[in-house]
Design goal:
- There is one protein chain.
- It contains 14 helices and 13 strands.
- By secondary structure, the protein is an alpha/beta fold.
- Strand 6 and strand 7 form a beta hairpin.
- The two termini are 15 Å apart.
């Protein structure tokens, strides 16, 4: 299992801080740094960090796919991968309709089908750049049929970057298995939902492609409630209860609650958001819910929980750096099976 760290909002806003964080992650034993597209561009910081690191993988988790064309995504992914000597992975997600149409002013179609065509388009472009195939992709939403030598990158020695797709519902899960190199699981997930809902869909579609889970990467940024003092533990528990309550208010995520018989919890959370009672979203999240969604406990105990729950099915997991560096290093050893 590989261990990913992440950039905070502050890291992304300050390139000196981003470089410092990336070097810390590399020195501590993390395999990658991930960056989410929230209030800043997700690609530019990775370009800076690529020049200041040597082994740390660089991953968007996620960049908003429908805010861009397949060609721009292909260009950016190629350049970052070449710049980092093959260390970049393109992680993308759909976002929701309101953001795509009202924030980015871009078209929104049937999201699973649109995402399938977008990834197929990028792969068709990569086929042209890396393998010399003619560019001839024609879908319902995307068409790419023109690529001249002048516009094809020549520095292709590091190969094509991998494409990871964020998914929650069955349609997008199956899309990831059908056209992507791996799936990024939403933090609002549980071991039961992963094993009982997601994996059967993934393995079925992979089998249709003549592939197995060995050919497919599963990335899961699991909630972790930990700390080195009682105050830190309590703050972490409260923060994650809020995140669980926030995500539970989204109708699209109700399927996760249904697996545990908690579907009736969603309408009340939705009502709180309609009334603007954001500070109350975590109040109804029980300790049972918290411990189902998150690895809870002192740092090393939380690491052992992650290992026992997901060591056989997850390829990548995300861990926090809000505790001492030596403790984080011990957590990494536990999750990777290098320590008791």
């Amino acid at each position: 299992m590989k261990i990913d760290g992440m950039f905070s909002h502050g890291d992304i806003a300050d390139m000196d801080r981003a470089v410092k964080r990336a070097k810390f992650l590399e020195d501590t034993g993390f395999d990658a740094v991930t960056i989410a597209e929230i209030s800043h561009d997700p690609f530019l910081p990775l370009a800076v960090v690529a020049r200041e690191t040597s082994s740390l993988e660089l991953r968007t988790s996620i960049a908003v796919a429908f805010a861009r064309s397949p060609m721009t995504l292909a260009n950016t992914a190629h350049d970052l991968n070449a710049m980092s000597n093959g260390r970049f992975t393109l992680g993308i997600g759909s976002q929701i309709r309101a953001h795509i149409t009202k924030r980015f002013s871009m078209p929104w179609h049937k999201p699973a089908k649109q995402m399938r065509e977008l990834i197929e388009s990028i792969n068709a472009i990569f086929d042209t750049w890396y393998d010399g195939a003619p560019l001839a992709y024609e879908g319902e939403y995307y068409k790419h049929t023109l690529m001249t030598p002048e516009f094809s990158p020549k520095n292709t020695e590091h190969g094509r970057p991998k494409i990871m797709l964020a998914a929650v519902g069955p349609h997008m899960i199956r899309t990831a298995a059908r056209v992507a190199d791996g799936v990024i699981i939403h933090p609002f997930c549980t071991e039961a939902y992963l094993r009982d809902v997601m994996l059967p869909n993934i393995t079925e579609v992979l089998a249709e492609r003549g592939k197995s889970l060995d050919d497919f990467e599963i990335q899961y940024p699991v909630f972790v409630a930990t700390g080195e003092t009682e105050e830190q533990m309590e703050a972490a528990r409260k923060a994650i209860k809020y995140r669980i309550g926030f995500y539970a208010s989204t109708p699209a995520y109700q399927g996760v609650l249904d697996v545990h018989g908690w579907g009736d919890f969603q309408p009340g959370q939705r009502q709180l958001t309609k009334e603007g009672k954001w500070d109350q979203l975590g109040d109804g999240v029980t300790d049972e819910m918290l411990e189902t969604f998150a690895a809870v406990g002192e740092p090393l105990d939380a690491a052992r929980t992650l290992k026992s729950r997901f060591g056989d099915i997850i390829d990548r997991i995300q861990m926090s750096t809000d505790i001492k560096q030596e403790t984080v290093a011990q957590q990494i050893q536990i999750v990777k099976g290098e320590a008791a």
